[in-house]
Amino acid sequence: MKIRAAEIRDVIPLSRVHIDSWKTTYKGLLSDKYLESLSYKKKEQLWKQVIPNGGVFVAENESGDIIGFASGGKERTGNYDQFKGELYAIYLLDQYQRKGIGRKLFKAVVHFLQVQHIDSLVVWVVEGNKSCLFYEAIGGIILDSTEVEIGGAKVKEILYGWNDIKYL
Fold first, then answer.
1. Domain that holds residue 108
2. What CA–CA distance (Å, rounded) separates 142 from 32?
3. Pairwise CA distance, residues 61 & 16, whole Å
4. For the chain, which ranges sit under pLDDT 50?
């Protein structure tokens, strides 16, 4: 298993992992109709724009297939002055979860932020997502929550934070 910075050539497999992992991660949390409506092509367009900016990392299995990704950068809302960085996304195909790969992807984003002299981090997580346990296990503290609309439904998101990422 290898973690590396994403490249433009990764757009198609990264988009597939993005959509496929959403369908398993959010089953029962978001409507089946919405999850089935997700488009690989739309995600490809997104990743074509995001990857060149950096902060995107992929996990490859032994065969070189992309099985997960994480992305992060500066905190986007500006509402949490003491937190400068944000984990934007981290997803793994279901069969690769709970094997330590998510932790390695998380650490890749943390290192990326540290190189930019960012020493704190937040992540928004849909309530009920099993990854809440992951963030709590690595020291994330609940800071806030909000209601957002995803696929026409209102869901609660929880904000986890780390004041000092140098020990992660």
1. 2-118
2. 28
3. 15
4. none
Number of structural domains the chain divides into: 1
Instruction: With CA atoms as reference, report the closest residue to 143 among 122, 162, 124, 159.
Output: 159
Say if pTM beats, i.e. exceeds, 0.85.
yes
Look over the chain and give the mean of its residue pLDDT values, rounded to a whole number: 95
Distance CA 65, CA 161 (A): 31
The verdict on residue 155 lying in a domain is: no
Among 27, 45, 48, residue whose Cα is nearest residue 36: 27
Residue 28 in any domain: the answer is yes
- For residues 166 and 168, what is the distance between their CA atoms, to the nearest angstrom? 6
> Which region, left, alpha or beta, applies to residue 103 given φ > 0 means left and ψ of -120 to 50 means alpha?
alpha
